[in-house]
């Protein structure tokens, strides 16, 4: 990796990437095809990591391993998942597993391998501020200022904590994104898991399997009517294609929100195989082993309020949508599996007045992921994982990562470096 202190920052970068999560990592990998461009990606982590606090035992991807960083647009890239398998000498063994969906551990290993080998990544560099002076963006890290002509914002989302839980956050009430770094002691505790998505499911099963000690009681609360599956059926998968994104982009803004809500389970449900694993575990414990772990499955409940009792535990007020009645639960530990949200990155504050945001304070994005802002036409700010409202449900997911990166690169280069033509879809949208 190039040592940053030796970099001549009088020459502006053609593109600075902010964050090196999977989305910008894909951009960095594909940008290797354009060595004439000066690019650099900055990440605050000391080395590559992917949601380390959520790297729960047994966690699997929700997308095919062919939806990697590059394959969809450059299958011959040395940074493909297949290339990784060959280099790690596990190609034949991998085929014998008959897997298309791999463990998150292996996907992280693959992405770390890419990250370790790309020259354009610089870890341990948090971007504190971005300003625009004369004709360049200036990125401020703790020690340096770096000039760039274009940016790609890829600093991800932040954990979402429901309003009623915010004041409770602390040692015994925390967001699941911190779980593996905290390694909480759950022995003899009453645990409440809030959230009925994939993370809630993974936390529930791991609690049941005593990953953090044998809890006294495990209560799994979901707002959804039941513990609902991810819709991975073939026609639903068509939402995750460039063709569908292009159709979605052409829809009136007021329609988009409703459609995204309607499609929620295509991206936010629980993997059906994982649901079956949980169900079978509960069956075995109930009928075969008579295991004494006490659990409660509580769907159709919305967390309305939380308070801390004098005895040191929490009272949770839930509304049961079936009975329309309120229920009170108590818990010693509350794990918030409540997802992530987009916020406007605070480092953009100096240029915020020049951003043309929508009424909800979100970026207005072009079809090529360029942010609408008051600046010279040839100075662009791209944003990834920030366009659910404009590009649809594929946007926060890995499915179109390579295609999105290729679209951005073509726009940046102002010529077709990668073919991003819409492949024929089986559906007439
Ligand atoms: C547990 C989990 C599992 C998922 N599994 C799947 C899946 O199987 N399939 C799928 O399609 N989608 C999945 N997703 C959704 C999506 O793919 C991920 O959220 C993905 O990580 C998004 O990538 P990203 O690059 O936008 O953001 P992130 O992965 O969040 O990366 C952002 C990066 O920016 C860095 N950063 C933040 N602020 C700064 C700063 N100021 N300066 C420098 N660096 C900064 C961070 O250190 C981080 O490395 C999953 C999400 C989660 C949470």
Percent helix range: 25-40%
**CATH topology term of the largest domain:** FAD/NAD(P)-binding domain
**Strand ordering within the main sheet:** 3-2-1-7-18
Bound molecules: flavin-adenine dinucleotide
List the defining traits of the structure above.
2 domains, 429 residues, single chain, globular, 5-stranded parallel sheet, alpha/beta, FAD/NAD(P)-binding domain
Describe this structure as you would to a colleague:
- The protein has 429 residues and is an alpha/beta fold.
- It has 2 domains: 4-157 and 342-413, FAD/NAD(P)-binding domain; 159-229 and 269-336, FAD/NAD(P)-binding domain, CATH 3.50.50.
- Helix content is 27%, strand content 19%.
- It has helices at residues 22-31, 81-87, 91-97, 104-117, 163-166, 179-182, 198-208, 234-237, 242-249, 253-262, 265-268, 272-288, 388-391, 401-413; strands at 15-18, 39-43, 121-123, 129-133, 136-140, 145-148, 151-153, 158-159, 173-175, 190-194, 217-221, 294-298, 301-308, 314-320, 325-331, 333-336, 340-341, 381-383.
- Strands 3-2-1-7-18 form a 5-stranded parallel beta sheet, covered by helices on one side. Strands 9-16-10-11-12 form a 5-stranded parallel beta sheet, covered by helices on one side.
- Strand 14 (314-320) and strand 15 (325-331) form a beta hairpin.
- Helix 1 (22-31) packs across helix 14.
- The longest helix has 17 residues, at 272-288.
- The protein starts with 14 loop residues before the first strand and ends in a 16-residue tail after the last helix.
- Residues 18-24, 42-45, 50-51, 54, 61-63, 126-127, 154-156, 347, 384-385, 396-399 line the site of flavin-adenine dinucleotide.
């Amino acid at each position: 990796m190039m040592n940053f202190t030796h970099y001549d920052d009088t020459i502006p970068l053609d593109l600075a990437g902010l964050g090196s999560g999977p989305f910008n990592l894909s951009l960095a990998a594909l940008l290797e095809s354009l060595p004439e461009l000066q690019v650099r990606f900055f990440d605050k982590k000391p080395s590559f990591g992917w949601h380390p606090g959520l790297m729960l035992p047994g966690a699997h991807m929700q997308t095919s391993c062919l939806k990697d960083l590059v394959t969809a647009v450059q299958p011959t890239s040395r940074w493909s998942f297949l290339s990784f398998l060959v280099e790690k000498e596990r190609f034949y063994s991998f085929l014998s597993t008959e897997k298309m969906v791999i463990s998150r551990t292996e996907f992280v290993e693959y992405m770390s391998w890419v990250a370790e080998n790309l020259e354009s990544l610089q870890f341990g560099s948090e971007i504190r501020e971005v300003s625009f002076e004369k004709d360049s963006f200036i990125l401020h890290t703790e020690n340096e200022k770096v000039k760039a002509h274009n940016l790609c914002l890829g600093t991800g989302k932040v954990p979402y904590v429901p309003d009623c839980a915010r004041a409770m956050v602390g040692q015994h009430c925390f967001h699941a994104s911190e779980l593996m770094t905290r390694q909480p002691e759950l022995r003899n505790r009453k645990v409440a898991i809030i959230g009925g998505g994939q993370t809630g499911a993974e936390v529930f099963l791991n609690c049941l399997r005593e990953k953090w000690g044998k809890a006294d009681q495990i209560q799994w609360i979901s707002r959804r009517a039941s513990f609902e599956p991810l819709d991975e059926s073939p026609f639903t998968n068509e939402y995750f294609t460039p063709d569908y994104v292009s159709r979605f982009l052409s829809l009136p803004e007021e329609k988009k929100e409703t459609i995204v809500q309607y499609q929620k389970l295509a991206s936010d449900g629980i993997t059906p195989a994982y649901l079956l694993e949980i169900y079978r575990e509960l069956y075995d414990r109930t009928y075969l082993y008579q295991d004494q772990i006490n659990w409660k499955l509580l769907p159709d409940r919305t967390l309305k309020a939380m308070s801390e009792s004098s005895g040191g535990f929490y009272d949770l007020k839930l509304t049961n949508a079936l009975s329309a009645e309120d229920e009170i639960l108590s818990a010693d530990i509350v794990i918030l599996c409540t997802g992530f949200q987009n916020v406007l990155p605070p480092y953009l504050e100096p240029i915020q007045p020049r951003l043309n945001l929508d009424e909800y304070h979100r970026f207005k994005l072009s079809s090529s992921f360029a942010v609408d802002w008051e600046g010279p036409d040839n100075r662009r700010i791209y944003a990834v994982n920030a366009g659910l409202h404009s590009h649809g449900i594929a946007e926060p997911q890995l499915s179109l990562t390579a295609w999105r990166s290729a679209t951005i690169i073509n726009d940046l280069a102002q010529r077709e470096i990668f073919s991003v033509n819409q492949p024929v879809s089986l559906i007439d949208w």
